[in-house]
Design a protein that fits this description.
With 316 residues, this protein is of the alpha/beta class. It contains 13 helices and seven strands.
Length: 316
């Protein structure tokens, strides 16, 4: 290839892989099939790219990411929100697959996101189980919300569906537990994560699947990754309130529920919450601070490979 650095953006859909090569401007499309993946890999490899970037697309990107990673290519998966914010900043409001691939390539060149090690197959399977369990729980909640207003003709069907979904949820719980117990590293981490009061299998499994970086980050990085770190909202001379936003919403929602439990049952988190309330902090601000503290404690525990110890946790 020439001396110019090559950045490749790939827009993934159910049927196609739209590719854009920057700065050469080539934009081929490949079918989202085994043969299409092989052709795409050969095409991308021929450029020895500096970076290959894809959006997270609800799992549709996994086959392409796995194939690229298996060939040792520098592939990064990015949150779609980052790509859309980047496009808006450049004044690009239109949205097509071909245009998206070009924007992703421009994002790769301008931002140069950090390349993280790809998740091994077992971690992807764990993540898939956690995601499926969450989907089933959401369906149970939706059906239970329909039940009170259901007419007689549909009520029995909804009740039967709830029972079936609850059996699927229970089976997924067992599958998750079995997968973790059969993997020594995960089993050790799971025991550490569940050692504090307030943290149960749901949060532990979510962190194992959705936050493999846990234990390798500092407290600010961990908080930002989950979206519980206050970020500045300043522009020119304007100084806005620091707020929390972005991050991994799936983890944040489960962390919230665990924190509410910890405020009741965990002496360190309870005292911290009470101190914030007595200092005049609003309830939501205090809860967010407790979420951040609990995450910081868990991150430190995994980093040091040590279970819960209340006196040490107070220093976190």
């Amino acid at each position: 290839m020439n001396e110019k650095e090559i950045f490749i953006g790939i827009d993934v859909s159910k049927d196609n892989l739209e590719v854009f090569v920057k700065p050469l401007g080539q934009r081929p499309a490949f079918a989202q099939t085994e043969d299409g993946l092989l052709l795409m890999i050969d095409f991308v490899q021929s450029f020895s790219p500096r970076l290959v970037v894809l959006e997270a697309t609800g799992g549709l990107e996994r086959a392409a990411v796995g194939a690229l990673g298996a060939k040792g290519l520098p592939v990064v998966v990015i949150n779609p929100r980052q790509i859309r914010d980047f496009a808006k900043a450049k004044g690009i409001l239109a949205k097509t697959d071909k245009l998206d691939a070009e924007v992703i390539a421009e994002f790769a060149e301008a931002i140069r996101p950090e390349i993280r090690p790809l998740k091994p197959q077992e971690t992807q399977e764990l993540e898939a189980l956690v995601t499926r369990r969450r989907q089933v729980v959401q369906m149970i909640t939706a059906e239970k919300e329909r039940l009170p207003t259901a007419v007689r003709a549909t009520k029995k069907d909804i009740e039967a569906h709830i029972q079936w979904l609850e059996k699927r949820r229970d089976k997924l719980n067992k599958d998750l537990e079995r997968k973790i117990q059969n993997t020594p590293l995960w089993r050790a981490k799971d025991e550490i994560l569940q050692s504090p009061k307030g943290v149960g299998p749901v949060l532990s499994h979510m962190l194992l699947a959705k936050m493999p970086e846990l234990g390798t980050l500092n407290r600010k990085q961990a908080g930002k990754l989950v979206g519980v770190a206050p970020l500045n909202r300043d522009s020119g001379k304007f100084r806005g309130k620091r707020t929390v936003w972005g991050g991994r919403a799936e983890i944040r929602s489960v962390l919230y529920m665990a924190t509410m439990s910890a405020i009741r049952s965990n002496p360190v988190i309870r005292v911290f919450y009470q101190r914030l309330i007595e200092a005049g902090k609003p309830h939501k601000v205090a809860i967010t601070a407790c979420m951040r503290k609990l995450l910081t404690i868990l991150n430190a525990m995994v980093k040091n490979n040590t279970p819960w110890r209340a006196p040490q946790a107070e220093k976190a």
